[in-house]
Amino acid sequence: MSENEFIREVNDEYRRDRLAQIWSRYSGVFIGLAVLVVLGVGGWRYWQHAQGQQAEAASLRFEEALRRAKGGTPEDAEKAFAGVAADAPFGYRLLARLRAAAEAGKADPAAGAKAYAAIADDTAIGQSLRDLARLRGALLLVDKDDAGALNTLQSLAAPSSAFRHTAREMLGLVALRKGDVEGAGRWFDQIAADRETPAGLRQRLEIYVGLVAGGPVQVTEAAAPAPAAPPPPTLLGTPVPAPDPDTHEEAPAPEAPAPEATR
How many Cα atoms sit within 13 Å of 85 on the Cβ side? Predict the structure, then answer.
């Protein structure tokens, strides 16, 4: 045996002894880690299976709530969506909350806006969906000249907002309704200058610009109707009959009273 082979055999024997020592000392740790990995993978797969079953059940309940919304009253639909939102997974829970707020707004705009505000204040939801809830809540109250709704629309009309197009359009229409033609024109100018304005909104914008160019609408009171013809004169307390419009015959003149006899 050469010297190199002897050294290699010694090294191999040393490594085997070293591995045997490590295994005898840490074998329990290795086995425990292996068990944990197996349990972790099994638990993860079970959780995925359970989530899939919950999502499927929530989907069926959500479809049932949609059918009730189409064929029932807003109050019944709101209760159905609220039931889905109580224990459904996150995605269906959020959809159900949005639909429940919409159904509540049909019966009571203030109640619907309050439900949307609760969604907008939920920090567990993404910012874009929170802004969507703010927009829908403001749209429910904008016709009532609610100051909070107008402030919300103005904040959503910022250039960085994903819902700036809808917010600007509604603010322009509100200004037109109030007779503020200049204010409406400023909002419509922002819509026209935005390169990302949707095509449908640009088509409506042509109508809005025409309304702004026409200036404020002057509303005048209607003329008072002409007074009705006076009733025909009476003779001795008996009204003179009016002529018949169908026969075009004149009513006979009343006979003069006979003169009284003189003594």
Answer: 16
Does the pTM of the predicted model rise above 0.70?
no
Based on its alpha-carbon atoms, the radius of gyration of the chain, rounded to whole angstroms, reads 42
3 state SS of 254: coil
Task: Name the one residue in this structure whose structure tokens are 């086995």.
Answer: 31
Element (DSSP H or E) covering residue 183: helix 181-193
Q: How far apart are CA 218 and CA 73, in angstroms?
A: 41
Enumerate residues 6+ apart whose C-beta is below 8 A from 163: 131, 132, 135, 156
For 219, half-sphere exposure in the C-beta direction (CA atoms, 13 angstrom radius) is 3
For 96, residues 6+ apart whose C-beta sits below 8 A from its C-beta are 62, 65, 81, 82, 84, 85, 88
Fill in the DSSP letter of residue 160: T
pLDDT tens-digit series, residues 210-260: 988 877 655 455 566 666 555 555 544 555 555 555 554 454 555 555 555
